[in-house]
Write a structure and sequence with these properties.
The protein is an alpha+beta fold. It has one helix and nine strands.
């Protein structure tokens, strides 16, 4: 089954799709696992769940983990800071800490 043309699948391993346009709450989208109704507005370039994602499961975008689900996420649900924890590590902070430690 294919996904809605208003959503982009960046990598076949991804469990999220990216909105190509603004989507409105109440609209039905096809996530690839069946039709689902959006429970909230989805901004351009925001993520929606491609399928059900369990709490603790990695969020995959571009085929790589970008975070972890902090709660169960339903298909077509908005995936953002309210239900995921980012895996992003700002490397400039690590470099600043190394420099600070070297000067001590």
């Amino acid at each position: 089954m294919t996904h809605d043309p208003r959503l982009i699948l960046l990598d076949p391993r991804d469990n999220v799709l990216v909105a190509r346009v603004r989507l409105n709450a109440g609209e039905t989208v096809e996530t690839g696992t069946g039709p689902a109704v959006l429970d909230r507005d989805i901004a351009l370039a925001h993520k929606v769940a491609r399928r059900a994602i369990a709490a603790g499961e990695k969020i995959l975008k571009y085929g790589a983990p970008i975070g972890v689900a902090t709660e169960a996420i339903a298909p077509a649900a908005h995936v953002h800071v309210h239900n995921m924890r980012s895996d992003y590590t700002p490397t400039y902070h690590l470099e600043d800490e190394r420099k600070a430690g070297a000067s001590a």
